[in-house]
Amino acid sequence: MDTQIADTPDAAKGPAPSSLKALSPHAPMKRVVMLVNPLSGSVGPRAAAEAEAILKEYDIEAEVVTLEGGQFDAQIDAAFARKPDVLLVLAGDGTARSVASKAKPDGPLIAPLPGGTMNMLPKALYGTADWKQALTRALEEGEPRPVSGGEVQGEYFYCAAILGSPALWAPAREAIRTGKIRLAWQYGRRALKRAFSGRLRYSLDGAERRRSEALVLISPMISRAMDEAMGLEAAAMDPTDAAEAFRLAASAVFSDWRQDPSVSTQPARRIEVHARSRIPAVIDGEPMLLKPDAVVRFTPKAFRALAPRPAAAEDSV
Question: Which of 80, 116, 176, 282 lies at a CB distance of 3.0 to 4.6 Å from 41, suitable for a disulfide?
Answer without folding.
Answer: 116
